[in-house]
Write a structure and sequence with these properties.
single chain, 375 residues, alpha+beta, 17% strand, elongated, binds dinuclear copper ion
């Protein structure tokens, strides 16, 4: 029994230590941006003060317990109140609170004031059950579940939600902020180093809340411009009769009411905003049976790292499984509940599903084309 308890304690401590490791993908200790750094320092400052208080108080309790434990039957000296002590243990905590409050308030001020919009990159992030939509209004680019940022750039993220409360959080870059329907919150972020980071919804928002994730790709400046150009570049033409082309027809017929796949075109940005709004309105009219619902934009899906909003690596096998039955990977997706292909009478064959997967993975900017518009 003892060894089981010992093993469980070691296991729990190990888990705890692993969660704190700066290398773990959602650790707030491995910071890569000034906002996360500021928040981490504030946490550590408060933490170490708490450690000192803990040691003094617990040490005092242990010391007094042993020093004054019952040694004989004599009644100890009886005291009633001690003004000096009471004043001391009121003033000391008050001072500690002030010491913690000063850097806290300064940090709040520092992160709440947005930089000049003209000199910053403005991104609109919208929460949906259960995925993230990212729009770049000045660049007229729209994507989903993958946020692309240039390094060392002031970014203002305008945050909202289409349906319920969500929360936008990139642990290594900045702390979380609620995504509220019909209300815009603003979050200042900046990423110091190119790389891949994890994002997560941090507000309970329904059955697949925990699987509502996204990835953040921080690019060096030039690469970021290339990414923008890629987002405006059409994919290669598909050979007629190929699996990909058959998949395209199936996709257009069955999936394209909810998933836009061609936002590389000029003017596609405003079209997508309208489309997403109309899908939502359509779904609201009949939440049970609507065949239409807001869904992630799939432009250049072949370049995405993950599928299912950050849940699985985006590859052929996973994509086939996802299209076959998204609920097996992410129970409760709107796709399974609303898309026509999951109705008994419209089910696709394995071959058709494979063709759609091949088509989606072929969606990448073609090296033979160039951007359809410029900003
Ligand atoms: Cu969205 Cu939790």
């Amino acid at each position: 029994m003892k060894s089981v308890i010992r093993a469980s304690i070691i296991f729990a401590l190990l888990l705890f230590a692993m969660a704190c490791s700066p290398e773990s993908p959602q650790s707030t200790f491995g910071t890569h941006g000034p906002v996360a750094e500021l928040q981490k320092n504030l946490f550590l400052f408060t933490f170490w003060i708490a450690v000192v208080v803990f040691i003094i108080v617990e040490g005092g309790i242990i010391f007094l317990t042993f020093k004054y434990r019952k040694k004989d039957d004599k009644l100890p000296v009886q005291t009633h109140g001690n003004l000096k002590l009471e004043i001391t243990w009121t003033i000391i905590p008050a001072i500690i609170v002030v010491i913690i409050a000063i850097p806290t308030v300064l940090a709040i001020w520092e992160t709440q004031v947005m930089p000049n919009e003209e000199e910053s990159l403005v991104i609109e992030a919208t929460g949906h059950q259960w995925w993230f939509e990212f729009k770049y209004p000045t660049e007229e680019v729209v994507t989903a579940n993958e946020l692309h940022l240039p390094e060392d750039t002031d970014v203002i993220v305008k945050i909202t939600s289409q349906d319920v409360l969500h929360s936008f959080w990139i642990p290594k870059i900045a702390g979380k902020l609620d995504m509220v329907p019909n209300h815009e919150n603003q979050l200042y972020i900046k990423a110091d180093d190119p790389g891949l980071y994890y994002g997560q919804c941090a507000e309970f928002c329904g059955i697949v809340h925990a699987m509502m994730r996204f990835r953040v790709i921080v690019h060096p400046q030039e690469d970021y411009q290339d990414w923008l150009n890629d987002m405006r570049t059409p994919p290669a033409k598909l050979a007629s009769g190929s699996d990909e082309d058959e998949g395209r027809k199936l996709f257009v017929g069955n999936c394209s009411m909810c998933h836009t796949y061609d936002s590389y075109k000029k003017g596609a940005y405003t079209k997508e905003i309208d489309a997403q709004y109309n899908r939502w309105e359509e779904w609201k009219k009949d939440k049970e049976n609507s065949a239409i619902v807001s869904a992630p934009n799939l432009t250049h899906f072949g370049n995405r790292i993950t599928l299912g909003a950050g849940i699985k690596e985006n590859n052929y096998d996973n994509l086939v499984k996802w299209i076959e039955n998204p609920d097996k990977i992410k129970l409760g997706t709107r796709m399974k509940n609303h898309a026509v292909i999951y109705k008994e009478e419209n089910q696709l064959s394995t071959e058709q599903i494979e063709q759609i997967a091949k088509y989606l993975l072929s969606l990448k900017p073609s090296s033979e084309s160039s951007a359809t518009y410029n900003k």
